[in-house]
Design goal:
The chain is α+β, with helices and mostly antiparallel strands and 181 residues long. It has one domain: Cyclic phosphodiesterase (Cyclic Phosphodiesterase, Chain: A, Alpha-Beta Complex), CATH 3.90.1140.10. The chain is 23% helix and 33% strand. A hairpin with a 3-residue loop joins strand 5 and strand 6. The chain is globular and about 50 Å long.
Length: 181
């Protein structure tokens, strides 16, 4: 290294994170069976059963040093939340070939959980996404023209926890917080 050359700063280690709720095994099985009845276009990427979830907040790349504050804030928000049940309302085709299953829009407890988590994120200096929250489960990508079977899954999804999920070559829970604990 010559005179005046500065050493490259070390990159701060980060993790790609989101906060989600996971379905029970019974809800997951019903969703998977329902997805097998669809007519998918060639090249569609149907979400694997173990990856089906409802995102509450996408956080993106978060410095690992922030994890203790984040997990404490999440646990506090979850402790003040109440369990709820979601019903599936409709299928929507979003731009860029995204197919989603919309959850009940009238779930006040879910809306309160989303808001409480958002407030906790802001308090620790993490900015939640500003766009309006639309509770949904992503079913497939690159699926423009997909045809749904008649009817929707009927099993209700009991939301009794939220999870901090690391997204890198799969999903891994870093923390699971029961609601109202």
């Amino acid at each position: 290294m010559g005179a005046g050359d500065a050493a490259a700063p070390e990159a701060t280690p980060t993790a790609r994170l989101f906060i989600a709720v996971w379905p029970s095994a019974a809800v997951r099985a019903e969703l998977q069976a329902w997805l097998r009845r669809w007519r998918w276009p060639a090249g569609a990427a149907v979400v694997a059963g173990e990856r089906l979830h409802l995102t509450l907040h996408f956080l993106g790349q978060v410095p690992l040093a922030r994890l203790p504050m984040l997990t404490a804030a999440m646990a506090d928000a979850a402790a003040g939340a109440t369990r709820c049940e979601l019903a599936f309302e409709r299928v929507e085709h979003w731009p860029h070939g995204l197919v989603v299953l919309r959850a009940s829009v009238d779930s006040a407890p879910l809306a309160r959980l989303h808001a409480a988590l958002g407030a906790s994120l802001r308090q620790i200096g993490l900015a939640p996404q500003a766009r309006p929250y639309r509770a949904h489960v992503t079913l497939a990508r690159r699926a423009a023209g997909a045809e749904a079977p008649a009817g929707l899954p009927q099993r209700r999804w009991v939301v009794d926890h939220c999870a901090l999920v690391h997204s890198e070559r799969g999903y891994r829970d870093l923390l699971r917080c029961p609601l109202g604990a």
